[in-house]
Hints:
Blueprint (H helix, E strand, L loop, with lengths): L1 H13 L6 H11 L6 H5 L2 E10 L2 E6 L2 E7 L11 H9 L4 H20 L4 E9 L5 E6 L6 H7 L14
Parallel strand pairs: 3-5
Antiparallel strand pairs: 1-2, 1-4, 2-3, 4-5
Helix pairs in contact: 1-2, 4-5
Amino acid sequence: xxxxxxxxxxxxxxxxxxxxxxxxxxxxxxxxxxxxxxxxxxxxxxxxxxxxxxxxxxxxxxxxxxxxxxxxxxxxxxxxxxxxxxxxxxxxxxxxxxxxxxxxxxxxxxxxxxxxxxxxxxxxxxxxxxxxxxxxxxxxxxxxxxxxxxxxxxxxxxxxxxxxxx
Length: 166
């Protein structure tokens, strides 16, 4: 019992050394002799993706419930001509058509990444946003960070949120 506690704490310290959860998972699994359940070790859950709304929002089914989830740390371009799309065009010196094209490409990219995993993903809940969506980090079956993969496409810039002034 104490040995497992120490190994898990060592794993938590080790995470600071790895930017990729896959590397972290392999390192920790090497340290654990009894092959504990990966979900409990890394605090992730398995879910089926029911729908991709856009490049940074999905609907997942977990525990028999459909839940809307927002990928944390990225902000993909919009797919419809709404106020926010015009703001993205202005802020990024793009036409509205370029914003919409990038948004649609981001949506297709996320759909492809999820389809390659048979619509199953691991997710780690990091909070809840203003609209009641889960804020999540998604991982594929090999524990590649899907949020990071989406940012690397160029369609989804990093999103840093500031504290509300309210």
